[in-house]
Amino acid sequence: MNALREGLPPLPPKMRDLPVDERGFPVPFFVAWIDGKPDHRIADPDKMAVCIEQNKCWICGRHLSAFKAFCIGPMCAITGTISEPPSHTECATYAATACPFLTRPHAKRREAGMPDNVRDAAGNPIKRNPGAVCVWVTKRHRPFRVGNGLLFDIGPPESTQWFAEGRPATRAEVDESITTGLPLLVAEAQKGGEMAELNRRIAMVTAMLDNVLPR
Question: What is the per-residue pLDDT for 18?
């Protein structure tokens, strides 16, 4: 049994039975194990099916209640979609405050040594580090098929919390993440003739931010 890494936030009760890797990080339910070791970069497709069919948390693997949480970047907040199933609010909050990728804005995803059969996430995944992340809590979400897999409509939020570097985010940090990520969405929307819908979604998220993180 590995010890939990010093300096991490306290584990939520629902996550306390998760294994801990050699670095001292808890291993989320969804993580694929390769040759007996967890690879946090890879989601196990069998776990995806379990979460959807049995209403299980993507992070801890326990049963979900009526409230579902998604840990998302600002671009997912704008599109209203993500490629991962929901989690408990406390599990998603832990991810936003403890995940080494999400809490270090300049961290990059490690691509070296990825198994040959690993595919990109469904939709048009944005692989950049968002810098700021949102815990989006909703009562309504739905999975739907796209050409290369399954996406989730995250539904309207009951509440949102924004984080950067493992702490509550400032409005400037969220605005910076939106500004640097939007060109990627604009390019896709222009190709599909969907700029009007994109502008509507941007205005909706901006209005939400005005209520939660005023300038």
Answer: 97
**Helix 195-212 and helix 171-192, axial crossing angle in degrees, nearest 10:** 170
Terminal alpha carbon distance of the chain:
46
Length of the chain: 215
Pairwise CA distance, residues 142 & 154, whole Å: 7
| 68: Cα separation from own chain's centroid | 13
| Two structure tokens written together for 107 | 């961290």
For residue 129, the model assigns a pLDDT of 83
Give residue 90's identity as a one-letter amino acid code. Answer: E
Collapse the DSSP code of 66 into the 3-class scheme (helix H, G, I; strand E, B; otherwise coil) and give the result: coil
SS3 13: helix
Q: How far apart are CA 161 and CA 71, in angstroms?
A: 10
List helix spans (H) across the chain: 45-54, 74-79, 89-98, 171-192, 195-212
Question: For residue 54, what are the CA distances in angstroms to 50, 88, 97?
Answer: 6, 14, 27
Q: Which two tokens stand for residue 41?
A: 């970069």
Taking 70 as the pLDDT cut, the residues of the chain under it are 106-125, 127
For β-strands 149-153 and 142-146, DSSP reports them as antiparallel
Of residues 165, 145, 29, 10, the one with CA closest to residue 86: 29
Q: CA 105 from chain center: how many Å?
A: 14
Burial of 117 (0-12, 13-18, 19+ CB in 10 A): exposed
